[in-house]
Design brief:
Elements (H helix, E strand, L loop, with lengths): L4 H23 L8 H8 L16 H24 L1
Length: 84
């Protein structure tokens, strides 16, 4: 493949750590493997219409709700990429 496989694995694990920090910041610390919001999601999984899935970024109501912070978030991410 022309790339270092360890590097690919490390990116995956780094993104797991980033996601874990975001989740902890937004939802609070968890004391174990049973995260209540995920348990509730699991219970309602059968009621979700998975045949009509669309990413949130293509839904008009989602785009409208994040429109005011979208450019700011993209700008912040680009600045961080340039800085680091």
């Amino acid at each position: 493949m022309g790339c270092n496989l360890l590097y690919l694995a490390c990116q995956h694990h780094i993104l797991e750590l980033v996601l874990a920090c975001v989740f902890t910041t937004c939802m609070g610390a968890t004391s174990g493997p049973d995260v209540q919001i995920l348990k509730r999601f699991q219970k309602h999984w059968e009621y979700i219409d998975r045949s009509n899935f669309k990413p949130a970024v293509v839904a008009d109501d989602t785009l409208n709700s994040i429109a005011d912070v979208k450019d700011e978030a993209i700008g912040f991410a680009l600045k961080q990429l340039q800085t680091f």
